DNA sequence: ACCCGTTTTAAACAAGTGTTTAAATAAACA
DNA sequence: TGTTTATTTAAACACTTGTTTAAAACGGGT
């Protein structure tokens, strides 16, 4: 077993267990057993359980942020070339769609999305801080983009609406695989793609609401 | 110290700690120390830590559900008397406003709202199940009310939109006291009442979106 | 005063926690 | 090849977890 083999096996299993059982409910003994590595490997390769969480988040957040930032900048840049305002809907798409499509990008990405979808409201300060440090610059890009796209909406209103959008998105990220309402009393759930389109319609309408 | 004194002191502290530290991150030793009762009191009065969680949730969920159900039924009943469709916005208000105003109803209610706001996406099956069992009938009432109010929207679309609303609401419930974006780069947050009104505007627009 | 059911208490239980250690092994380079 | 890093291993460490136990204290009724 090579060096990076052990590290990525730990990262993969940590991602899965942190997402499915929660960070605090995951013990290093269960984690290392599932990964097929020695108990001490986590502390040797990552330092501590918390630093492992940070590595789990960084591994996929950095590439995901890169994608979202690029797409958002494309939208604003193309608008400037046409001397027009960027469309709020396109900015939202540039942020939301890559995030949700990220689930299909690799086997563990689905768990990763669940994990970060829960991070904003996690009771543990460590988890929240770890996530926010990675996410804030991207949030900021979205916010300034939206300010440019919707100059008629006051900034403080725009901010809460963006927070509402983050709430909706987080909820979809960490509950889309659950089945609260999967009972005969409720209609069938939508397909993943239809869900994304419905989410876009919902948040765009909310963002641009009059009044 | 009377019987109910010990029980309510445990309930109050459990509510606070489960909300602020999380269910699994709260130890019965810290909890009973904070409550000023003996360690064994939890198991004596409630049976187990999980049954304590259930009691914490039931204590306030049952009255809150009563309020929301009554208000929602009032809306549909008044509409029927006028031979008109109930207004979706009023149904939403009947569900959302009592929920968020519940925070000010008593000292611990703020923590309670944080706790149940996180329950839908909690990694622990026990927590989710405990909450959903209590919440599902009220969700169902809202859903059938909305079906009546918006007959032109297909049921499966209506359901996802209601889930989006729950996501937004949950996020507001458990993060409104946090301060992600409280930095000079972002505008000042709104007052609690303004936040509620903005939330109503947002979710109503999303719910009734065309297309 | 006594009795009896309820409640509180301190102690112990068995199991689990993240982390550290020092010895054993493997890999890399000379 | 031998030597030096890098990695893996099993064991121990110190501490925390939820729960149970049996004795003590309390409170109301007769």
Give a verbal description of the structure.
Two copies of one chain form a homodimer. Chain A has helices at 3-21, 28-35, 41-46, 49-81, 88-101, 109-119, 125-149, 155-175, 192-207. By secondary structure, chain A is mainly alpha-helical. The first copy, chain A, has a single domain, classed as Tetracycline Repressor, domain 2 (Orthogonal Bundle), CATH 1.10.357. In chain A, helix 1 crosses helix 4 (49-81), helix 1 (3-21) crosses helix 6 (109-119) and helix 5 packs antiparallel against helix 7 (125-149). The relative contact order of chain A is 0.11. The mean pLDDT of chain A is 94. Chains A and B meet through helix 1, helix 7, helix 8 and helix 9 of A and helix 1, helix 7, helix 8 and helix 9 of B. The structure holds a DNA duplex (30 and 30 nucleotides).
Instruction: Specify the helix fraction band of chain A.
Output: over 70%
Which regions of chain A contain 5 or more consecutive residues with pLDDT less than 50?
none
Name the beta content range of chain A: under 5%
Count of discrete domains of chain A: 1
Shape of chain A: globular
Instruction: Characterize the largest beta sheet of chain A: strand count, sense, and whether it forms a barrel.
Output: none
């Amino acid at each position: 077993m090579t060096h990076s083999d052990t590290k990525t096996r730990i990262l993969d299993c940590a991602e899965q267990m942190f997402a499915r059982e929660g960070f605090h409910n995951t013990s290093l003994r269960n984690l290392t057993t599932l990964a097929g590595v020695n108990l001490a490997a986590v502390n040797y390769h990552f330092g501590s359980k918390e630093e492992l969480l940070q590595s789990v988040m960084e591994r996929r957040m950095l590439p995901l942020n890169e994608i979202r930032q690029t797409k958002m900048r494309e939208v604003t840049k193309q608008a400037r070339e046409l001397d027009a305002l960027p469309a709020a809907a396109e900015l939202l798409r540039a942020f939301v769609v890559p995030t949700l499509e990220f689930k299909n990008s690799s086997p563990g990405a689905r768990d990763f999305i669940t994990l970060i979808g829960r991070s904003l409201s996690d009771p543990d300060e460590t988890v929240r801080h770890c996530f926010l440090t990675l996410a804030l610059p991207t949030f900021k890009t979205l916010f300034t983009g939206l300010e440019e796209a919707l100059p008629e909406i006051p900034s403080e209103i725009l901010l809460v609406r963006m927070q509402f959008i983050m709430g909706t998105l987080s909820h979809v990220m960490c509950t889309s695989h659950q089945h609260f309402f999967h009972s005969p009393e409720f209609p069938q759930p939508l397909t993943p793609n239809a869900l994304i389109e419905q989410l876009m319609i919902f948040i765009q309408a909310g963002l641009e609401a009059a009044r």
